[in-house]
Design goal:
It is built from 15 helices and 14 strands. The chain is of the alpha+beta class. The protein has 3 domains: 9-136 and 279-297, Thiolase/Chalcone synthase (Peroxisomal Thiolase, Chain A, domain 1); 138-176, no CATH class; 190-226 and 305-436, Peroxisomal Thiolase, Chain A, domain 1 (3-Layer(aba) Sandwich). Strands 1, 2, 3, 4, 5, 10, 11, 12, 13 and 14 form a 10-stranded mixed β-sheet that branches. A two-stranded antiparallel ribbon has the order 6-7. Strands 8-9 form a two-stranded antiparallel ribbon.
């Protein structure tokens, strides 16, 4: 792939070019109140195995495996290592797991890319996974303390007294998923931060629901056009085959969504389950390579990771993280908005994406919050999340950063685009972004 003018030497990925060979993902399966059919490691193995088979790569060819995951199961400690061994990698192949909340999958890609750019690796399997329906239900501290006392009670009388101390409060569970989606510093749920942004930028319910319906409509159109070939089927132990993102609602409309009640700020809020990302299970894996590895293994090239950026901001405004991460990338490479052909901004909430678009073109926001002289030109909505996003297909938090990167590159390939941006907001008040490119020749180095 020929360089297209973006200067590798001025980015964070200093050194050798880093190529994305290809990628796959599983269907994203909506959590439905009970553990889904696949734990996280099964999802990652399914995505990784399909990818390696497609590329005719033996697992031993990999220098390492890096996966993002927010909360793996109790039998999946360092889930990247579990997945690597299940894929057939050598015991000598290192594997490690990263966690940056919603951007864990993107962090895995950057970590792999940095090692390749620096000459420490040639060929890496990287991506992200999350089985949100399998996030644990935990005992509260009162019950944990009681169990400690119970374990020390030796006599029948001591155990009887311990039993007499049990109360209803001991049995109140901690839902790890809900706790994890609440900021531990300010106490706001992620949905409440979206409500904050809606108020700050005067985004009303109609705008949110219209955006959410568009996400479903665009994803449905992408399926109809055959654009979702990044998905590999999942096969459950009961024989069920999952081939599609099952949260898609092709008949969704602003009128239907308007009937849903607010979830996070009752009764007057505007953020609902319909204009928020779905809680989902899924995995996405990509193979990253140096030019030498591409040539040695006769691999295709989907595109190149040019640069990356992380940013921090007020946790209560965490949804604006993409703006804070994207702006330095644009400045570093002297790019304007029109120079980016494909934009993928993860849809955590409709209000959050709309707020990012408003802040991006607000002179006041860019001057006060980003220290810029001027705002950016508006992002063309025809280039933003062209095949839908987290609202219509789901947001398995550890996987989404890898998914949006893969999909941005897929859109770039089918439209002969040269530049792309993939970005996410991150719970806790951060933003992440990757600058991507491909040449007009596509897969030629």
């Amino acid at each position: 792939m020929k360089h297209t003018g973006l200067d590798q030497g001025h980015g964070r990925l200093r050194g050798r070019p880093v190529y994305v060979v290809d990628g796959t993902r599983t269907p994203f399966l909506k959590a439905r109140g009970k553990p889904g059919p696949f734990p996280a490691s099964d999802l990652a193995v399914a995505a990784g195995r399909a990818l390696l088979m497609r590329l005719k790569l033996h697992p031993d060819a990999l220098d390492q495996v890096v996966l993002g995951c927010v909360s793996s199961g109790p039998d999946e400690a360092n889930i990247a290592r579990v997945v690597a061994l299940r894929l057939g990698c050598s015991e000598q192949t290192p594997a490690w797991t990263v966690q940056r909340n919603c951007a864990s999958g993107m962090q895995a890609l950057e970590s792999a890319a940095l090692d390749i750019a620096g000459g420490r690796s040639e060929l890496v399997l990287a991506g992200g996974v999350e089985s949100m329906s399998h996030h644990p239900v935990m005992l509260n501290q009162v019950m944990v303390a009681w169990l400690g006392a119970w374990s020390q009670a030796r006599s029948l009388g001591a155990r009887g007294r311990a039993l007499m101390q049990l109360r209803a409060r001991h049995f109140k569970p901690i839902i790890a998923l809900l706790r994890g989606l609440t900021d531990p510093v300010n106490g706001l749920s992620m949905g409440q931060t979206a409500e904050e942004l809606a108020e700050r930028f005067a985004i009303d319910r109609t705008a949110m629901d219209t955006y959410a319906a568009r996400s479903h409509r665009r994803l449905a159109a992408a399926y109809d056009a055959g654009f979702m070939d990044e998905i590999e089927p999942l096969y459950a132990s009961d024989g069920t085959v999952y081939e599609h993102d099952d949260g898609l609602r092709p008949d969704s409309s602003p009128e239907i969504l308007a009937k849903l009640r607010p979830v996070f700020d009752r009764p007057i809020g505007q953020v609902t389950a319909g204009n928020s990302a779905q809680v989902t299970d899924g995995a996405a894996t990509l193979v990253l390579a140096s030019a030498e590895a591409v040539a040695r293994h006769d691999l295709p090239v989907l595109g190149r990771i040019v640069d990356s950026q992380w940013a921090g901001l007020d946790p209560a405004q965490m949804g604006l993280g993409p703006v804070h991460a994207l702006a330095p990338l644009m400045q570093r490479h002297a790019l304007d908005t029109e120079a980016i052909d494909v934009w993928e901004i993860n849809e955590a909430f409709a209000a959050q994406v709309l707020a990012c678009c408003s802040a991006w073109q607000s002179t006041e926001y860019c001057q006060r919050e980003l220290g810029l002289q001027d705002a950016f030109a508006p992002i063309d909505q025809a280039r933003l999340n062209v095949d839908g996003g987290g609202i219509s297909l789901g947001h398995p938090v550890g996987a989404s950063g890898a998914r949006i990167t893969l999909h941005a590159l897929k859109v770039m390939a089918r439209t002969a685009a040269r530049t792309g941006m993939a970005s996410l907001c991150i719970g806790g008040g951060q933003g992440g972004a990757l600058l991507l490119e491909r040449s007009d020749e596509g897969d030629s180095l």
